What we know:
The chain has 192 residues and is α/β, with parallel strands linked by helices. It is built from 6 helices and 9 strands. Helix 1 packs across helix 6.
Amino acid sequence: MSVLLIAGSPSPISRSAALLDSVGKRLARQQVEVAQLQIRDLDAQALIHADFADASIARAQQQVADAQVVVIATPVYKAAYSGVLKAFLDLLPQTGLKGKTVLPLATGGSPHHMLALDYALRPVLQALGAKQILPGIYATDAQVFVLPEGASTLAPELALRIDDAVQVLVSEALQRPAAFAPVHFSQVRCSV
């Protein structure tokens, strides 16, 4: 059971990356296998030109395919998710998120952009076949404090929302289905 954390910010140090990192740390404390994908680290030329043969693009697509749960974090620009995230999502197959649970995260300058999660990102995630899209978490710049060296802290209310979302991921999305005990053929009864 694995979770893929996708950072959709073009900047190495960002509020959305801090939000994503906080989810990753909480999942790791619960012994959940976590992998990371920084879209900005993919070959830019390959990303822009949709070069499916590029090794970095192929690896990233495979990471998405292998994950059970995907957590996507993005800054909000002009009431939409980042362009690098859009470029990457455009490279996923039409069923790239089929059977997966997705937790969308976003940060923006003010509360006025919080609907970008529901009106811009959620329809794309649905179109890619996500089985379940959890309620997104939107944070304003004032709720995520990032220091120049990359350390960050979250406002207490935001930290509680992250805690709740991680608990839902662990208890519902990452729960292993109950296995049935094996039944010997001699115990099988059939009627016609």
